[in-house]
Each structure stands twice: as C-alpha cells, then as structure tokens.
C-alpha cells in the first residue's frame, strides 16, 4: 500500500472557497480541499445562547492552548507511525489559519451541517487546524488509467463507513 501524501502547499493562501464540507463530530469540523487530497480538522465551540447565529460563538477567557493537539500529533507521528508503518498512519501537521478563515467556514457550510450539530460552530479563537491526507478516498487506478473512485466515506476510527451504490 502506498503512503498517502499531502499535495497541499501550506505557503499558498487558505481560501474558504477551496474547501468542501466533509463531516464533523462532537469536537471538530472536517473540511476537504478541492484541489489536493487533504482534510483539515477545525476545533468547535458552543454558540452563545440564546441566539443560534454563527457569528456569536462563545470564546473562552482562558488562553488558547494547542498543547493537547500537539500531543496527539506527536503520538501519531512519533509512536504509531513508526510502529505501524508510514503506509498505514498518514502524517498530520498543525497549521496556522489566517484571520477570518474559521468564520468563513462557519458561514459557508452551515446549510450542509446536520441540524443536531449546529449548536456548535468552528471556534474562531483557534487560529490553527490539523491538516492530513484525505484517506477516505480510494486511490486512483494503479495502472495509470484515469478512473473515478467509488464514493466512500469514513466517520472516524470507530469503523463506521458507507459505500454509495453506483
């Protein structure tokens, strides 16, 4: 199996229109880049009650602490990746996000998000995200032929998945 390689250039400006909504869980929203085969995990926070407007996320008074994400990345990259192999554990990177990016994601994808998840939105106080290769898509043909991979989605490491019928 070939290692999933990121084709995203972190030197290029991040633009919301280059991303599509992929999925989300309790703590993160996942968006996928249209041009590269990468996904970006963004931290979520509660929206201030009683107004469900996305421009009013609750921003905590405590200092932003990315050490928990950095510990997860270190464990993945320094322990699990060498143990299981580069072809099975993709590399992940903590990247800086431009000002206004998370707010733009919140506005652009609100209609695509499940209603039950809309009490939270991307946290604009977090100016970073985790970038990793998009391993939910099957690789293209190994014979060099152009092919369209089947639509396969993964909803985390729990093993939940779905395959669309052609």
Layout of secondary structure:
Blueprint: E1 19-24, E2 28-33, E3 38-46, H1 67-84, E4 93-96, H2 101-109, E5 120-122, E6 128-133, E7 152-154, E8 161-163
Antiparallel strand pairs: 1-2, 2-3, 3-5, 3-6, 4-6, 7-8
Describe the structure.
It is a single chain. The chain is of the alpha+beta class. It is 16% helix and 24% strand. It is built from 2 helices and 8 strands; from the N terminus they run E-E-E-H-E-H-E-E-E-E. Strands 1, 2, 3, 4, 5 and 6 form a 6-stranded antiparallel sheet that branches. Strands 7-8 form a two-stranded antiparallel sheet. The chain is globular and about 45 Å long. The two termini are 25 Å apart. The relative contact order is 0.22.
Mean pLDDT rating:
76
The ordered H/E elements are: EEEHEHEEEE
Number of helices: 2
Would you report the number of β strands?
Answer: 8
Structural class based on helices, strands and sheet pairing:
alpha+beta
Poorly predicted spans: 1-6, 58-63
Major sheet characteristics: 6 strands, antiparallel
Would you summarize the structure shown here?
This protein is 16% helix and 24% strand. It is built from two helices and eight strands, in the order βββαβαββββ.
